[in-house]
Design goal:
This protein is mainly α and 64 residues long. The protein has one domain. It is built from three helices and no strands. Helix 1 packs antiparallel against helix 2.
Length: 64
């Protein structure tokens, strides 16, 4: 999770440094949140992947 947050944060800071308007800041923040949700497997389009990952982890004895 650290890698997800750290790299996404750096990208956000880069975008905020170049933002010219409040709309650019809001867009950068929205992209930041969307990126974190996607990389952390928290979006609905990745539900099947998460389910398969849970099955694999259960098979090897790691219960989440």
């Amino acid at each position: 999770m650290f890698e997800v947050l750290e790299t996404s944060w750096r990208a956000l800071i880069g975008q905020l440094d170049t933002a010219a308007t409040l709309d650019h800041i809001i867009l950068a923040h929205d992209q930041y949140l969307a990126t974190i949700k996607h990389k952390a497997l928290l979006t609905s389009d990745l539900a099947d992947v998460v389910e398969q990952l849970h099955c694999v982890l259960d098979t090897v004895g790691i219960h989440v």
